[in-house]
Amino acid sequence: MNKQTIRDVDWTGKRALVRVDFNVPLDQNGVITDDTRIRAALPTIRYLLDQGASVVLMSHLGRPKKKVVESMRLRPVAERLFELLPEAQEVKKTEVTTGQAAEAAAEALKPGQVLLLENTRFDPREEANDEEMARELAKLGDVYVNDAFGSAHRAHASTEGVARYLPAVAGFLMEAELNALYGALENPKRPFVTIIGGAKISDKIGVIENLLRKVNTLLIGGGMANTFLVAQGLSLGDSLVESESIEIAGGLIEKARAAGVDLLLPTDAVVADAFSADAQHKVVPVDQVADGWRILDIGPDTVATYSEVIKQAKTVIWNGPMGVFEMAPFAKGTLAIAQAMAEATAQGATTIIGGGDSVAAIEQAGLSDKMSHISTGGGASLELLEGRELPGVVALLDK
Ligand code: ADP
Ligand code: MG
């Protein structure tokens, strides 16, 4: 990675202003239901404290729409953080994000102490990447650290603007994400295989176009495979098809051919007579999907072909489930691909999962620890795979 990290700074007596991604899910009672994102920030926070810094943390939570929403305050996050970080002795928390009270709290910090600012998105200036807010944030620390990979595709005051007013470096989570994703994209061990699925081709056109320039094989599954199949002249009954993208799908098939990339489409599918977990379902070849039926998963022949390709790969990136994995009868394809990736990892391949639903599917399969890297940033990892620069990364100091 060509960006400076927290290892490149002498932290003795310094105050670190750290953008983290504490956007955790809360239940109706405000209880955190999954603290993965808080845990993911701990290595950076611990390192800074160990090196003699004090730490000011900032994050967004939910979508408060530019105003204070009581249920989206970061109080429960501060409490959970303290449970996970007892060596901090205390995690202070302000009710504001910037301004005099925040400055006083930040200035009172001693080395080894931690302060959490209030939800950055309560301030309407955050998402507008307002200069004034960026300057106010910059007063709260000596060095800015961005460890919020999941927000790096947004140019907001706390992710991009503030970096113009302080020396800015990457935290460990940001570094790990960038090393994994750019490492695979720019310097892959071959064969390099990507698996793209999910509901809609329109969400993933940019990703496919960019990857076509880099990979050896592209495996297509999920609802979006339907539009490719229709582009090849098949009719798919009541399956989800994006009619406005059929031409684009045909174009991508042409581009793959011209680039010498193997683009594989499903040869069989699990079809159902309704979009429901208790619908009737059966396996058919993709050219035999009758009216009244819809494709909700890839079939066993496709699983066998794709698994073989995956097991022979040296680099695999996966984004997008192979079927409607939220319903048990249509989760088999996704689980089988996850299993094939786990086997590839065991044989020394680099395996990377990106995308919110894809990560959920891997967790559901209990295979998270069998992959080389699971990206914490859905939208950010997609934009990176599209070949776009992430504003939160561009803003960091070069090595
Ligand atoms: P990710 O979040 O990993 O990027 P997407 O959001 O693009 O993935 O797609 C995930 C969604 O795609 C899931 O909710 C899944 O149910 C849906 N999906 C997958 N296959 C199909 C299909 N054949 N028909 C309809 N929806 C599908
Ligand atoms: Mg999704």
| Count of extended strands | 15
How many domains in all?
A: 2
User: What percent of residues adopt helix (DSSP H or I)?
Assistant: 25-40%
Quaternary structure state of the chains depicted: single chain
Mean pLDDT: 96
By CATH reckoning, the class of the largest domain would read: Alpha Beta
Q: Alpha-carbon distance between the termini? A: 8 Å
- Strand arrangement, major sheet: 3-4-2-1-5-6
Strand residue content: 15-25%
The description of the largest β-sheet is: 6 strands, parallel
Q: What is the CATH architecture descriptor of the largest domain?
A: 3-Layer(aba) Sandwich
Radius of gyration: 23 Å
Uncertain segments are none
**What is the H/E order?**
EHEHEHEHEEHEHEHHEEEEHEHEHEHH
CATH topology of the largest domain: Rossmann fold
Discrete helix count: 13
Walk me through the structure.
By secondary structure, this protein is α/β, with parallel strands linked by helices. The chain has helices at 36-50, 75-84, 100-107, 131-138, 172-186, 205-211, 224-231, 246-259, 300-311, 332-346, 356-364, 378-385, 391-394; strands at 15-19, 54-58, 91-93, 114-116, 143-146, 168-170, 192-196, 217-220, 262-264, 268-272, 281-285, 294-298, 315-319, 350-354, 373-374. It has 13 helices and 15 strands. The protein is elongated. The chain starts with 14 loop residues before the first strand and ends in a 5-residue tail after the last helix. 50% of the residues are buried. The model has no long low-confidence stretch (mean pLDDT 96). Adenosine-5'-diphosphate (ADP) is lined by residues 198-199, 203, 222-223, 240, 295-296, 319-321, 323-324, 326, 355-358, 378.
